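Retry 2 of 3 after timeout on previous attempt. Resubmitting structure tokens to design endpoint.
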């Protein structure tokens, strides 16, 4: 079922016939609704003979030609030569008889790259050069109304213009061929409005710049403005002239302005009438009243309010169909950006589908609309044509607040002034760059600064700094890793305009030449916060918290919690009184419970505080009667449009029932047995027998009550230095014996006790000299091949890094997978990695389940071998063992942190290693079999192990 938002967009994308501009589609309307044309490919696959092809599409995705990843000269063995096949299209068509006498125009929304068109054997105009732009031809005199017509299109994948190739095709993205956006014929009356450009300012000033054909002074123009409920706000009439150009002006009182938080839209209808008031032609446009201003040395202002861009770069891309998309895909992408609490998008590195912009208008995203040019610019002659096509197509979208003149050196500065020729609202033009000297219009957009250089820019520069690319998200690096430090600095700095993360999704292409496998061109294209099919990676949810316009500071509830929670309003236009807040008191599922998640024991709404944008205040939870009973607290913010902003979570006292069970002994005391020899020590109780190697103090064998061994062992191994046992000691307390190992080195002591309940207690102490450590703690071995799943109470469900440690506190469960971010099978969340704030974890294996519980907060668990980023070596380096328990974990850098390393420290304080100095201790409790305690499990028919 189509969503309301999509239906709203479709109503504008496909206007009704009553508007008097009719469309006759020669192609389909999008990648899911195509038309079949005859097709001939000059070289590569399925070449040299006439066949058929679906339009719109890329011919590579239809099985023709050769694949080409722009700048990758080596993989495809062409040594600086690119796939250069030519496609020949043709089909017949018959226009309706009522098109006779009308003005007819043939429109291509996008064709890659040089496009030559004939109708009925005659060339209809010059070859169009440039892939991503709408272009058109007047074909009134070329078609036969009522008879069949033949259209022939020749599309050359490589352009005859070298600057077009350098700007578009020698680029860091997949290169395609073909007619990839719709082709249609428009029919307008002989007297008609040919173009309109609208200026709608926040103060209500309205200008409509009209271009008309065959109009005289006897004609009239009527303008009607309605709100989105259809109520007419204002209507007025102006006399036309003989010149064909006219500017309508008016002032609208009490307008509701457009911004990303409240995207208020109006409907403007312009009617061309004759001297008898008969309507000859009408055009309609959705408009938003808003004003964009760059105040040099200060900031970026929307409607007089200083704003900062929480943005992302977005390729128009889908794995099966490349850059041929549809409104549903465009809507999905905008909804995902809004879910991440973003307010802006850069259309890297070319203008997007028209439907994407309509949706940004409707749902509220600030758009940077970009002229193509990846490190190389169009020449001036061809660039001027393409700037005109870009701006005239997109000029009326309120969501567009910047024009971008190329990417990373792909800027022809001679074109800067051309944008204003076609945009009467004079939107700012910027240069998206990574080279000094390209600052423009008071904005520095330099790419991939580190934290120290970011600080220097904000401290010393008179330019607004708004990176159009930062924190490159190849594999699992960058993205949200480092974003907390960056964003806090950006938010606090006067000279920050925000920025745009690289990039929205992995550009993984379904290769029709290799069995429809997805190819990301190794390390060139797996740069997304989402997978190719928009699978949510770990950065997705972390960004949602970091970019939340409702900023909650409290990380854990204080012991004297009185219900007050400090909050900052980081909206630009929304008072927190317009945001709804809900609180949930919960109890978490327990170890041994067959299901995950939590139970809500009470849910209620809170009074929304009146806190203006940029101000701080407090949210007050007045009813604290469940504070002693509940195990967790959730706080949810819901924006004025009914969408969840974020849900914060805190533990209260989730382990009490578990520790009651651990220390609960049978009525008849079970005596610990301990045998000590020269090389081995064996301790048993509660039905379990544990064997230790006396030479290094490691657990070497676990025998369960069933008699089956569990292959968990060869630990604890401390993650730094060597460990050598200096003394073995046995302590007795009543019927319970404790095995104590003392060591030389950083690991000082381990104590092992088996409680009569069967729970095994491990207490360990270690000492570290002052310094930075990636993963201080202990490790054990366990065969990865035996593992089925993991369940835990802690942050999740995604793995974390030290500088990307966001997550929801709950009981999460992940099935085993071997996913590496940015590569097949994109099965998220990743099973392997670092998981944080663990209270307990259950590992389900082919040998049964086993459990670990942490008495102390702040436990991080590492699961098996994995990496964050690919490169000459995989980063970051992993500790010893398979399953680890740490008091700190590593941070993750990015592809561009000091070249191709993953040095996270350059991205801010959270990227530093864990500062350690002195003695540390932690107690872990293990249970090496299935828990059947009725106090923990919903299985009330079973009793606790060994309990009579």
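Retry 2 succeeded. Sequence:
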């Amino acid at each position: 079922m189509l969503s309301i938002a999509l239906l709203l967009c479709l109503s504008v994308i496909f206007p009704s016939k009553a508007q008097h501009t009719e469309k006759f589609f020669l192609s389909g309307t999008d990648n899911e609704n195509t038309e079949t044309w005859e097709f001939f490919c000059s070289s590569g696959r399925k070449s040299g003979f006439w066949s058929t092809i679906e339009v719109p599409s890329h011919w590579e995705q239809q099985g023709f030609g050769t694949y080409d990843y722009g700048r990758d000269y080596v993989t495809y063995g062409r040594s600086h030569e690119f796939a250069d096949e030519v496609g020949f299209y043709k089909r017949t068509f018959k226009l309706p008889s009522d098109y006779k006498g009308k003005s007819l125009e043939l429109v291509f929304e996008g064709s890659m790259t040089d496009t030559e068109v004939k109708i009925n054997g005659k060339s209809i105009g010059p070859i169009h050069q440039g892939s991503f732009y709408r272009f058109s031809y007047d074909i009134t005199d070329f078609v036969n109304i009522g008879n069949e017509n033949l259209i022939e299109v020749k599309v050359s994948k490589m352009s005859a213009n070298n600057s077009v190739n350098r700007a578009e095709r020698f680029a860091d993205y997949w290169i395609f061929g073909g007619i990839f956006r719709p082709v249609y014929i428009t029919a307008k009356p002989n007297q008609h409005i040919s173009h309109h450009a609208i200026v709608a300012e926040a103060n209500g000033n309205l200008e409509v710049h009209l271009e008309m054909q065959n109009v005289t002074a006897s004609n009239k123009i009527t303008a009607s403005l309605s709100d989105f409920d259809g109520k007419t706000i204002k209507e007025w009439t102006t006399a036309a002239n003989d010149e064909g150009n006219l500017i309508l002006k008016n002032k609208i009182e009490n307008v509701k302005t457009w911004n990303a938080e409240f995207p208020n839209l109006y409907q403007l209808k312009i009617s061309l009438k004759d001297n008898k008031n008969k309507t000859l032609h009408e055009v309609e446009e959705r408009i938003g009243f808003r004003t964009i201003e760059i105040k040099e040395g200060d900031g970026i202002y929307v409607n007089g309010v200083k704003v900062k861009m929480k943005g992302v770069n977005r390729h128009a891309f889908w794995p099966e169909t490349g850059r041929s998309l549809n409104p549903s895909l465009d809507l999905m992408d905008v909804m995902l950006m809004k879910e991440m609490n973003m307010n802006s998008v850069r259309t890297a590195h070319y203008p997007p589908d028209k439907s994407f912009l309509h949706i940004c208008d409707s749902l509220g995203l600030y758009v940077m609309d970009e002229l193509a040019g990846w490190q190389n610019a169009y020449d001036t002659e061809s660039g001027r044509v393409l700037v005109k096509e870009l701006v005239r197509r997109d000029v009326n979208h309120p969501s567009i607040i910047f024009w971008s003149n190329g990417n990373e050196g792909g800027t022809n500065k001679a074109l800067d002034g051309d944008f204003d020729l076609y945009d009467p609202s004079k939107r700012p033009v910027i240069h998206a760059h990574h080279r000094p000297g390209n600052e423009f219009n008071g904005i520095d957009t330099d790419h991939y600064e580190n934290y120290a250089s970011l600080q220097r820019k904000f401290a010393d520069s008179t330019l607004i700094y708004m990176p159009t690319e930062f924190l490159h998200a190849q594999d699992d690096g960058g993205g949200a890793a480092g974003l907390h430090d960056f964003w806090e600095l950006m938010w606090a700095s006067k000279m920050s305009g925000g920025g745009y993360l690289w990039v929205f999704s992995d550009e993984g292409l379904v290769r029709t030449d290799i069995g429809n496998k997805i190819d990301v061109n190794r390390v060139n294209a797996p740069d997304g916060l989402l997978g190719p099919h928009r699978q949510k990676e770990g950065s997705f949810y972390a960004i949602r918290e970091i970019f939340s316009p409702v900023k909650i500071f409290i990380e854990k509830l204080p012991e004297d919690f009185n219900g007050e929670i400090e909050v900052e309003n980081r909206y630009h236009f929304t008072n927190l009184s317009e945001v709804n807040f809900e609180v949930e008191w919960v109890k978490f599922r327990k170890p041994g419970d067959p299901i995950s998640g939590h139970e809500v024991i009470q849910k209620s709404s809170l009074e929304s505080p009146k806190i203006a944008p940029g101000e701080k205040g407090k949210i007050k939870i007045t009813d604290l009667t469940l504070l002693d009973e509940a195990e967790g607290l959730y706080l949810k913010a819901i924006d004025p449009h009914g969408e969840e902003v974020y849900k914060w979570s805190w533990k209260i006292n989730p382990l009490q029932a578990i520790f009651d069970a651990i220390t609960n002994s049978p009525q008849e005391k079970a005596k610990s047995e301990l045998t000590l020899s020269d090389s081995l020590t064996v301790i048993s109780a509660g039905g379990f027998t544990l064997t230790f190697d006396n030479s290094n103090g490691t657990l070497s064998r676990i025998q369960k009550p069933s008699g089956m061994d569990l292959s968990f062992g060869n630990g604890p191994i401390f993650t730094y230095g060597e460990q050598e046992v200096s003394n073995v000691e046995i302590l007795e307390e009543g019927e319970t014996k404790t095995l104590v190992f003392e060591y030389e080195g950083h690991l000082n002591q381990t104590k092992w006790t088996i409680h009569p309940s069967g729970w095994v207690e491990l207490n360990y102490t270690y000492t570290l000299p002052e310094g930075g450590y990636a993963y201080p703690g202990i490790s054990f071995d366990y065969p990865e091949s035996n593992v089925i799943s993991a369940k835990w109470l802690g942050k999740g469900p995604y793995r974390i890094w030290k500088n990307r440690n966001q997550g929801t506190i709950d009981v999460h469960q992940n099935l085993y997978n071997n996913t590496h971010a940015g590569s097949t099978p994109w099965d998220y969340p990743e099973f392997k990695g670092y998981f944080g704030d663990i209270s307990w974890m259950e590992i389900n294996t082919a040998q049964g389940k086993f459990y670990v519980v942490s008495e102390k907060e702040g436990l991080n668990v590492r699961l098996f071998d994995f990496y964050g980023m690919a490169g000459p070596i995989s980063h970051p380096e992993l500790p010893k063992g398979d399953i680890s328990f740490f008091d700190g974990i590593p941070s993750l850098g990015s592809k561009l942190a000091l070249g191709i390393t993953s040095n996270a420290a350059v991205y801010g304080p959270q990227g530093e290693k864990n500062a350690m100095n002195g003695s540390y201790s932690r107690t872990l409790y293990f249970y090496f079999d299935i828990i059947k305690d009725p106090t923990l499990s919903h299985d009330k028919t079973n009793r606790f192990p060994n309990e009579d």
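Attempt log closed. The chain has five domains: 19-188, 192-287, 312-546, 550-654, 778-836+856-914.
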